[in-house]
Specification:
Elements: E1 5-9, H1 12-23, E2 29-34, E3 37-41, E4 45-51, E5 66-69, H2 73-85, E6 89-97, E7 104-110, E8 116-121
Parallel strand pairs: 1-4, 5-8
Antiparallel strand pairs: 2-3, 3-4, 6-7, 7-8
Helix pairs in contact: 1-2
């Protein structure tokens, strides 16, 4: 249903480096660099960052987050660790999340601008 997403960032260079490291464990790489925008993906750009130099930091209570699918719990763990190593912050450590319909394993991070990004997988064990 969704073809691609984009988030605003205040420093394109810093955010490009952050997302290169953070998205690599999920198999996404920088595919496009244009003035004011960078696209990441596997075969086409699915995740974009766009320069919004006057943007205020995203409020923790904004309610908005982006969730990316991981193939395994180890990818979720690596995504979280990479984000922290690249200057992001944890907004939920990797682990199983209780839910009444399905069992899922996820981690939540915030990028340097406060954008909330999750990696999720659905273990079969």
């Amino acid at each position: 249903m969704i073809d691609h997403i984009s988030v605003g960032v205040t420093d394109l260079g810093r955010s490009a480096r952050f997302y290169e490291q953070t998205l690599a464990p999920l198999g996404l790489a920088r595919l496009v660099t244009r003035p004011g925008t960078v696209g990441f993906g596997k075969s086409y750009s699915e995740f974009w960052i766009n320069l919004r130099s006057g943007m205020a930091s995203v409020a923790p209570e904004s309610g908005c987050h982006i969730c990316l699918r991981a193939k395994s719990t180890s990818q979720v763990d690596a995504f979280h660790a990479a984000a922290l190593g690249a200057g992001g912050s944890s907004d939920g450590a990797p682990g199983l999340r209780p839910h009444d319909r399905v069992k899922y394993y996820a981690a939540f991070i915030r990028d340097p601008d406060g954008n909330r990004v999750e990696a999720v997988t659905f273990p079969q064990d």
